[in-house]
Amino acid sequence: MKRIDSISQLEKTKTALADKRDPSKTCITVCKGTGCSASGGAGVADRFITEIKKKKLAGKVSVRTTGCHGFCEQGPLVVVHPKGIFYNKVSDNDVSEILSKTVVGGEVIERLLYIDPATGKRIVYEKDVPFYKKQTRLLFGNNGKIDPTDIEDYVALGGYGSLGKALSKMAPGDIIDTVKGSGLRGRGGGGFSTGKKWASCQKAHGTEKYIICNADEGDPGAFQDRSLLEGNPHSVLEGMIIGAYAIGAREGYIYVRNEYPLAVKHIRVAIKQAGESGFIGKNILGSDFSFTIKVNRGGGAFVCGESSALFASIEGRLGEPRFKHVHATEKGLWDKPTVLNNVKTWATIPIVIDKGADWFARIGTDRSKGTMIFSLVGKINNTGLAEVPMGITLHKLIFDIGGGIPNGKRFKAVQTGGPSGGCIPEKLLDLQVDYEGLTEAGSMMGSGSFIIMDEDTCMVDIAKYFLSFTMDESCGKCTPCREGTMHMYNILKDITEGKATMEDLDTLEDLGRMIKETSLCQLGTSAPNPILSTLRYFKSEYEAHIKDKKCPTGVCRKLLQYSIDKEKCTGCTVCAKKCPVSAISGEKKKAHKIDKEICTKCGVCYEVCKFDAVKAG
Amino acid sequence: MLKTTRKNIEKEVDKIVDSYDAKITGSISILQDIQSRYNHLPKEALMRMGKRLDMPLSQVFSLATYYKAFTLKPRGKHLISVCMGTACHVRGAPKLANAIQKKLALRSGETTKDGNFTLELVNCLGACALGPLLVIDGKYYSKVDADKIDPILKIYKPASKSAKKKR
Amino acid sequence: MVKLTINNKPIEVEEGTTVLEAAKKLGIDIPTMCIHGSMEPYGACRVCMVEVCSGKWSKLQTSCTYPVSEGLEVLTDSERAIKARKFIIELLLARCPNSKEIRALAARLGVEKSRFRTIDPEEKCILCGLCVRTCKELISSSAISFINRGIDRAVETPFKIDSDACIGCGACVFVCPTGAIKVEDIEGKRKLEKWHTELELAKCADCGEYFTTIKELDRVIDKLGLPKDMFTSCSACKRKKLRKNLSISI
């Protein structure tokens, strides 16, 4: 794309690009997000290109590889436009058939259609898939329509129009008022008013100011930032450029996890293309506003999502948090006024500017405006990313959109907010999901990860899992987080191994409360949340581990007793051979026995028995 | 073959450092690039980097040991990462991790004697729909259970050795 | 000037003063471990926690880092503050059960025993970072740094081998609040075992006694830019000479 030097030129370019996209021409979109790629999407896209050449269909059909559509469970996803025929779990071998039958013949291939598990019916069109139908995809909607490595796709759909509007029709103060009025709150989890943050940075002294995009998405179970950066990087850039213009920054940074190679690649390509097109760099769109963006890759430290640690990391210092009694909007990166916002927050900005504050504020609840992207993962049918208005009930999100729990199991709890969040039990399924609602339930919004757990999940094991995470990720600077998380983990380990007393449980609770009170940064003050929330809702499960030395779900191996069912055992001797401590004895073709004194409860016998004769309980 | 004489390393590090304008703000990215060049962080490289950035060696060492992505020990030919994210955890990642550890007789962070595999248990890789997840040299393997380990590892075994070592 | 109260006693101090400094002026004692007058506060050990209240809210803060503000109410002796400090020292006691200094502070705060497990009974370091910061900020050597993270965090030299940057000045030994770093002068060498480092000592040209490391002398000469021969004697001999010269001139 040629460099654009004025607002009018941007509009002309947009119209020209949009006209080039013949809506009646067949276009096949193939999802090449990380999820679909891993399930074979990359190969599918390549195959389409070679097959189209082979079949000499180049004039008739085009292929567009896109970022994540959100429905990762069913990947690789292929959509045949303009009709929007939706094929799921497509493999390379299906490509030729799609071209000859659907593209040339106009026929729908039944086998590749998605079957709605609720009704058992096959669904032909993308727009009718229940997972999508019940969403409000403001941020995510374009992921399926654009090639993230081609800026023309973004511009053709009106991209950078909000920047044009901001630069030509709005003063910095107007932009901040609009963002304030929209009610947009930080999507990284803190929930602070974005407009207020910008306003205080705009007012801060100094001419050197910074804009930072926090893409250090570390919450296990969250991948919405990754999908946005991979699938629609320009929307994030556009938000940052508008923000920079509003607060008066000339330099911006994107701090992104190195574990996200595709996101790093796409954002770099996007920055390069935006620079060539005149959206980044000197005299943006012919104005006297200049702004550059650099990419900084993280080194693998969860705590670097915390603002002061993130600044230290960008500055090249050790990424450990500092005490801060002054806001980053006054003293942030290099002690200069800085606005730090999450990927999703930045991607929301162009929408707010385009549609206006009132339009945006009509979506959501009184306290939380707009949409939020949630990741639905764990024991759920429709694993993926769902964008919904704030205030949706847990039930609707998990059952209507998420499709409920697989294999007819019962829902037990949903863990929200990552390692800083908590577990919400079944009785709160009617809870309205917004910042305050989740906090009141003892959890938090965090980055919007929803990990769904069924009846087979042990809540003590989950608490232990999160503690092992925070213990591992604690920077070690302050005493309570460094020492305290280790002690909490040790007690939890004892509980899952049947070595703990009820007194230990009291100590655990006290540790949790005190670490919350005394730690230096948010990682420490929120580290006990998974324990405190499971103690609040699932205390009886802890007690079963301690008093009865039993894990009700059978997850904690050390608490299991293994035995062999005489009736079912065929005497195949496989278990005896595999037992690492020779605890199993018996003659060939006769029932075997486990010596409980020797057994280390490793569970190998249970796994290798083909006759279901080994019992664990 | 990588030429890893000190002089060569210094030349390479200079190139990397210069690509970030020899600025301290690039230090983590510089370490990333050194690591991907040498599969680990060689001592000589860290010394050179400190010198070029005017950064005390103690601080370079501090960064190199703080972040999970870095290792001072050479990694094996193939890096196996097992995702230990929450979604993978509830879908059985601990079992998968145990099975691989047993199979390769390795703990997280260790390398097989033949230098073929390095195993790492890592935090969430953000591909939660695919769990339990295994990544080898950047290639994702989805919904991996204990039975799938052998056929996957086979792909990466050195041809001559696997033929000799029939179990 | 800023007016505030500490334990209901009013005080007026300059803006930018920390709560710890203000409390000191009132003669109120708050325990500390990771702070030193000649360096910026760090806020890591957290034994100096107090309760700060302003209007509707109240929270625990480290007094060494928290700046005073108009109308602030500080409580160093509230139940919440005392409980927090006891908790921190209990954690440190479990970490270093055989440190004389930690045991003394624990006793002072009324903690006899820790509920928590000890990993290494010989551990003396509480990771307050005073040695690291002194070496960097005051001595400009940066011979040591924090390595690893979480519970594996430690203070070390690069690659855990003898350090080129260490001049053997012993400032780290001097600032360490728990006696975790030892220095020994044996047979013309200064040994800092924790830093895997040994340095040659310089002999006094007059009395023949070893008095400091050659590296430290070189550093001083380099910094001050004075002639080398001014630094050939130990400070005792220098004083003697000075006294002699003075008496002659009188």
In short:
The complex is a heterotrimer of chains A (617), B (167) and C (250). With 617 residues, chain A is of the alpha/beta class. Chain A is built from 24 helices and 19 strands.
Instruction: Decide which structural class fits the backbone of chain A.
Output: alpha/beta
Strand order of the largest sheet of chain A: 12-11-15-13-14
Question: Number of DSSP helices of chain B?
Answer: 8
* Oligomeric form: heterotrimer
Estimated radius of gyration of chain B = 18 Å
Distance, first to last CA of chain B: 31 Å
Approximate strand percentage of chain B: 5-15%
**Using DSSP, what is the number of strands of chain B?**
4
Q: What is the structural class of chain B?
A: alpha+beta
Q: Biggest interface, and residues per chain?
A: A-B, 55 and 42 residues
Low-confidence stretches of chain B: 161-167
Average per-residue pLDDT of chain A, rounded, comes to: 94
Molecular shape of chain B:
elongated
The value of Rg of chain A in angstroms is: 27 Å
Total number of beta strands of chain A? 19
| Percent helix of chain A | 40-55%
Major beta sheet summary of chain A? 5 strands, mixed
Spans of chain A with pLDDT under 50 lasting ≥5 residues? none
- What is the mean predicted local confidence, pLDDT of chain B? 89
**How far apart are the termini of chain A?**
66 Å
Describe the protein in words.
- The complex is a heterotrimer of chains A (617), B (167) and C (250).
- Chain A is α/β, with parallel strands linked by helices and 617 residues long.
- Chain A is built from 24 helices and 19 strands.
- Chain A has a five-stranded mixed beta sheet with strand order 12-11-15-13-14.
- In chain A, strand 11 and strand 12 (384-389) form a beta hairpin.
- The radius of gyration of chain A is 27 Å and the shape is globular.
- Chain B has 167 residues and is an alpha+beta fold.
- Helix content of chain B is 49%, strand content 11%.
- Chain B has a four-stranded mixed beta sheet with strand order 2-1-3-4, with helices on one face.
- In chain B, helix 1 packs across helix 2, helix 1 (6-19) packs across helix 3 and helix 3 (43-53) packs across helix 4 (57-66).
- Chain B is elongated and about 50 Å long.
- The two termini of chain B are 31 Å apart.
- Chain C is of the alpha+beta class and 250 residues long.
- Chain C contains seven helices and eleven strands.
- Chain C has helices at 19-25, 79-95, 100-108, 130-138, 171-175, 214-224, 235-249; strands at residues 2-6, 9-13, 49-54, 57-62, 73-75, 145-147, 154-156, 184-186, 189-192, 197-203, 210-213.
- In chain C, strands 2-1-5-3-4 form a five-stranded mixed beta sheet, with helices on both faces. A four-stranded antiparallel beta sheet of chain C has the order 8-9-10-11. In chain C, strands 6-7 form a two-stranded antiparallel ribbon.
